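During the reporting period, our protein records have gained a structure token line. A sample record is set out beneath this paragraph:
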Amino acid sequence: MTDLEMVLITGMSGSGKSVALHALEDAGYYCVDNLPPELLLPFIALEQKHGARKVAIAIDVRSATSLPLVPEQLRQLRKLQEQGVTMHSLFLDANTETLVRRFSETRRLHPLSRPGASDQHRALVEAIELERELLGEMREQAHVLDTSMIRPSQLRGYVKSLIEAPPTQLTLVFESFAFKRGVPLDADYVFDVRMLPNPHYESALRDLTGLDQAVVDYLKAHSEVADMFTHIEQFLSHWLKALARDHRSYVTVAIGCTGGQHRSVYLAETLAAAFGPHWHTLKRHRELDARSTEQAATI
């Protein structure tokens, strides 16, 4: 049998699972959508026997009657590392408002919708909440990726960066965001840095970001910013080994400020640089990444 790298994609209907699968297909994975959970372990054994090296599988609420099987199967798959199977488990999520809008725009029926309901909006919200309940245990065993505020091109990039992370060690994800656009659903820890000095009120810095040296120098000059960095760094350093012992594959640390442009970006970058020598780290800047995508689309 050959070594097999497996990616399991689960998540809410309308959260972008098809986009994620296409990204994995482009990365050389053999992809299967809506595989019945009963076939998960036999399929992995068959692919490994036939020499497959990269497989991506999507399982979702369309297999509702068999979903209770999945958590135990995931535990069994994690025990197969000595037999050459490594696994990434990703759960795509989005807030209810976003999912309702996406279904309304595409005019598609939710898999759990009740046909003929008099109040279609209410029926859709009820279907989404039921789906959250059915997928709750699968969500707890996976790395959650919130797609509420990101574009398909961002999602493709995020998925590719996640699967490149070593599956056998904990990966730290530092994510900057704007509170005015909502807290990321995928955050394990959220730190609010809105009380720090704001470069937005400096006319020369307003249009720059936390990636620009002028903003970096401004924030470095304030002791409150250094204090915030130290407190977050000490907290994470204290608990990361315990999280790793708990077999966590990913920990997402979200840093939020008002606009997601200056303070949160600077601290996410600085923390990633500090932890990079000791842990595998990834960086995301939700608002800046979205802006870069919009600019690229207009070129």
